[in-house]
Amino acid sequence: MIMVSVAFINPLSDDGKQIVREMGSLEGVSDINEELIDAVIQTKSQEISDDDVVPQTYFDFALRRIEWYIKKKNDKKFNYKKYTFLLNDNILKFDVIAFYLLCQAIAIKFGPNSRESRVMVESQGELIENRLGELSKADRKDLVTLMLNSLISYSSIKWTFFEDLLSSRKLNLQDLILDNGEIILDKEEFVERFSDRIEHRDPGKMFDLMIGDRIKELILIRMIMQNTENYMQTVHEKSGREIEPNPVLLELADKVSDVLSASAQSYGYGGSFASDTKASPLNPKAFPPCVKKVLEGMKSGGRNDAIILFLTPFISYARLYPSVFSENISKRVSDVDPNLAALQNEILPMIFGAADRCNPPLFEDQPQEKVNINAKMGFGMHETLELKDEGETIWYTPMSCEKVKIHLPSLCKPDADCKKIGNPLTYYNRKKRMVKKEESQNESPNES
After folding, report:
1. Which residue stretches of 110-186 are H helix?
2. Which of 161, 132, 304, 280 minimizes the C-alpha distance to 226?
3. Strand, helix or coil at 299?
4. What angle do CA 229, 248, 7 make, to 5 degrees?
5. What is the C-alpha separation between 419 and 185, in angstroms, rounded?
6. Binding site annotation covers 418?
7. 103 annotated among ligand-binding-site residues
8. Which positions in this protein are listed as binding [4Fe-4S] cluster (predicted)?
9. Phi and psi for 241 in degrees, rounded to 5?
10. pLDDT tens digits for the chain (448 residues)?
11. How many CB atoms lie within 10 A of CB 73?
12. How far is CA 38 from the centre of its chain?
């Protein structure tokens, strides 16, 4: 018998919806709830060193869900014990209500294509994975099978069934085993279909290796993430027909935005783990010789690669995430530039300016390269930069000095400060500190 409720993994399940119906209204969601406090305090290994750690209201609980994901993703000193209660199924009722509060608040205030929406969907997926990880292997397998059976029919699953998952890139076709357009998830069906095609190997063991529980869990998690996204889309569309949104939800939405802005302040614009390499306006005085050369304008030979592959990653990381190599944490542009203001107003003008100074100007004969610039910053192959497209491609990190020497040798004209430097971004961070120190000394009054 599975001890964990389906709603603890999938709040959008029938069990989850029943919990919402029993709640009835939003009245009291911001009131202190002793039952919630007790459930959190009673959680094994939960840290309760101060009141700020323990959520006291549904609002607090909802915000802790978002905080957990942001800090787990970005903070190298993340304290798991402050959020252990999120893995305790005794908080089921509060968790489900918090989920719906977050989805509705974010969808109404910010819409389904916002930074807030993306964080909500990703955090739900991460929570599911962590909660499944708390179960025994047998319970985990049984629960995943039970839930998949309620979401899909194992017989004749056409790959087109996952059209939304595939188009949103939450699932890749290469993750799946297909036969005549049908996805194979059942072991007996796999053996029946492929036993005569597999030589010198046990088909059952091949199934365990290629599919097994891993793919089923992946599909389950991605389906719930997609359903969460679809639910917020529905809420957003309905809210457009309402006269005035519930002020309780708007208040929560603002608090979610504050949490994300604070994280950008801690891990993005306002600072980072390496305080000398926090995000800040670009200082051209600190650019390495190779970057200065590209900014002056390139001739046709090597022009495209210099702008697209070299300059675009350098300028974007130097402005937004200069500590990428020391932190070694993958981020998206919107994690540190939530509204894409720095990208639109500072980064792109500098890149486009360098492109215009090329001979001939890059976009005169190859205007499609603007799409490639967007792609290298993680926004897919689109002409305009929109948050809804972010994640379709990866945000390319700056080329190393070694790669520059191999692929763009004409750029590599080292100066004295290039010694023992392995990446132009490292040069920039060091030089920026030196320039700042020199400017500070020059501004100081002379001592008599």
Report:
1. 115-133, 137-151, 163-167
2. 161
3. strand
4. 45
5. 55
6. yes
7. no
8. 290, 401, 412, 418
9. -95, -5
10. 567 899 999 999 999 999 999 988 888 888 999 999 999 999 998 988 776 789 999 999 999 999 999 988 888 788 889 999 999 999 999 999 999 999 999 999 988 888 889 899 999 999 999 999 999 988 998 998 889 888 876 555 666 666 666 666 666 766 677 777 777 777 777 788 888 788 778 887 877 777 767 788 888 898 899 899 999 999 999 887 776 788 999 999 999 988 887 776 666 543 333 345 677 889 999 999 999 999 999 986 789 999 999 999 999 999 999 988 887 778 889 888 888 999 999 999 999 999 999 989 999 889 999 999 999 999 999 999 988 888 889 999 999 999 999 999 999 999 999 988 899 999 999 999 998 888 877 766 554 4
11. 18
12. 32
The residues spanned by each domain of the chain are 6-147+214-266, 278-436
Q: Is 358 part of any known ligand binding site?
A: no
* Mutual angle of helices 58-74 and 247-267, in 10-degree steps: 20
**Contact present, 232 and 105 (Cβ < 8 Å):** no
113 and 168 Cβ atoms separated by less than 8 Å = no
Q: Name the CATH code of domain 6-147+214-266 (choices 3.30.830.10, 1.10.10.10, 1.20.930.50, 3.90.420.10).
A: 1.20.930.50
Cis-peptide, bond into residue 349, ω within 30° of zero: no
Residue count (the chain)? 448
Kindly report the number of other CB atoms within 10 A of residue 345's CB atom: 9
Distance CA 249, CA 26 (A): 9
pTM of the model: 0.68
Instruction: Calculate helix-pair angle for 58-74, 115-133, nearest 10 degrees.
Output: 80
Helix, strand counts (H, E) of the chain: 23, 3
Q: For tokens 């592959």, what's the residue?
A: 309
Query: Other C-beta atoms within 10 Å of 178: how many?
Result: 12
Strand pairing class (182-183; 157-158): antiparallel
Which tokens sit at 153? 């029919």
170 burial level (CB within 10 Å; 0-12, 13-18, 19+): buried
